[in-house]
Amino acid sequence: MAxxxxxxxxxxxxxxxxxxxxxxxxxxxxxxxVLLVDLDPQGNATMGAGINKxxxxxxxxxxxxxxxxLKDARTHSETGHFDVLPSNRELAGAEVEMVELDQxxxxxxxxxxxxxxxxxxxxxxxxxxxSMLTLNGLCAAHGVIIPMQCEYYALEGLSDLVNTIxxxxxxxxxxxxxxxxxxxxxxxxxxxxxQVSTQLEKHFGDKVFKTIIPRNVRLxxxxxxxxxxVIFDAGAKGAQAYVAFGxxxxxxxxxx
Length: 256
Ligand code: ATP
Ligand code: MG
Fold this sequence. Notes:
- The protein has helices spanning 16-29, 44-48, 60-64, 70-73, 94-97, 107-112, 132-140, 152-171, 191-204, 217-221, 229-232, 237-255; strands at residues 3-7, 34-38, 75-77, 82-85, 121-125, 143-149, 177-186, 208-214.
- The chain is α/β, with parallel strands linked by helices.
- Strands 3-4-2-5-1-6-7-8 form an eight-stranded mixed beta sheet, with helices on both faces.
- α1 (16-29) packs across α12 (237-255).
- The model has no long low-confidence stretch (mean pLDDT 96).
- Bound molecules: adenosine-5'-triphosphate and magnesium ion.
- Magnesium ion is lined by residues 16-17, 40, 44, 125.
């Protein structure tokens, strides 16, 4: 039975998609069976996995609205060696269209239940908002992985996210927990990065992953080739950090 994780942070551009795609490829490399769910109308995870979002026959949009089957919408990343439930701009409409539906925050959970036994991990790339889409991700998941940049404003948004997770845990999904905070785009030369990083460790202790993802241009270049960074340039510092993160996550789960 798959462990289901949301990669979430309502702040934009903090490395959610880069984390989701590279963790998916890193886990696939460890021979884990992985499904990556793109829950963002931007479709960045879809493209980053080498799938053309402009040519989808069916996507997560149809699945959420009950107009299509997950098994028909799902596709395979040839470059990352994992399955993908892709998305594109159509998904932006789901937010409003789902308002009318029963159990609207549980739609993704219900859809994923039919494939949970086919995977070891299901990773959900959330959009940059605490929206109905993100709520669907949180209701479907066992845990949340929060990527964050070590800068001053990062901490401000964090309490809103942690509060939302607490509410979902209390009212909708008792399985949900914060798996951990992942420091990304880290620049060790910046004094502020070091300070915020230390502050995070103080506040959140073991919830902060030991692995730190450095700022690395090869990770930023990889999506334009439709290849996950860990495969695009396996020797690059960023790629190696994401591989190490995958191993840390697996080890952490084995200890639980
Ligand atoms: P959004 O909120 O729009 O979905 P996001 O949180 O998913 O954004 P990403 O798309 O993963 O963030 O990253 C934002 C930008 O930063 C992208 O251009 C990405 O290539 C780049 N980036 C992410 N991580 C790194 C890194 N470790 N080093 C260098 N560039 C990075
Ligand atoms: Mg993204």
